[in-house]
Amino acid sequence: MSSYTPDEFGDIDAERAEGFAASGDAFQRLWTPHRLVYIEDGQQPAAHDCPFCNAPTMDDEKSLIVARGAHAYVLLNLYPYNSGHLLVCPYRHIATYDEANADEIAEIGSLTQTAMQVLRKTSSCDGFNIGMNQGRVAGAGIAEHLHQHIVPRWALDSNFFPIIARTKAVPRLLGEVRDEIAAAWP
């Protein structure tokens, strides 16, 4: 097994993946040890600074909220994977899906369906990634407040720009996208 030199990747001494698994598979591995700092440190806000508790107390335009329900609301992700990346959050400060009550679960589902319909109409997306990362260990950016991601996807929207250049290309401004989605919300 050969190692990369520190000159190639800064201080990182990364080993090649060959020979690690007992049996191979069709996947190649992209090792990202720089993410370990984020995982270990957690970078979680204090409870009184929860952005998902604070957002509904602000103006919708400023907080990027596109729709409000009785038990949950929808807002744009401040750090989107793609243009139109939405989050569905209950108003109540709960950490995991099993803590949500029946009304919250029903409304999160209903708002998700409506968000998909609106995103198809406004962005002509080809598909979606929908999911929840629950807990720090699962990679939740805000682990203490439940939120569901709705990421619109288009054919060929993936590239290595974020990995190579540490840059995410988001072609539209958040305010512009928020206005468009909010206006199209039934």
Description:
By secondary structure, the protein is of the alpha+beta class. It has one domain (45-184): HIT-like (HIT family, subunit A). Helix content is 27%, strand content 13%. The chain has 6 helices and 5 strands, in the order αααβββαββαα. It has helices at 36-41, 51-54, 60-63, 102-123, 161-164, 174-184; strands at 65-68, 72-76, 86-90, 127-131, 148-153. It has a 5-stranded antiparallel β-sheet with strand order 1-2-3-5-4. The termini are far apart. The model is unreliable at 1-15 (pLDDT under 50).
What layout of secondary structure does this protein have?
Layout: H1 36-41, H2 51-54, H3 60-63, E1 65-68, E2 72-76, E3 86-90, H4 102-123, E4 127-131, E5 148-153, H5 161-164, H6 174-184
Antiparallel strand pairs: 1-2, 2-3, 3-5, 4-5
Kindly list the characteristics that best describe this protein:
disordered N terminus, HIT family, subunit A, 186 residues, 6 helices, five-stranded antiparallel β-sheet, alpha+beta
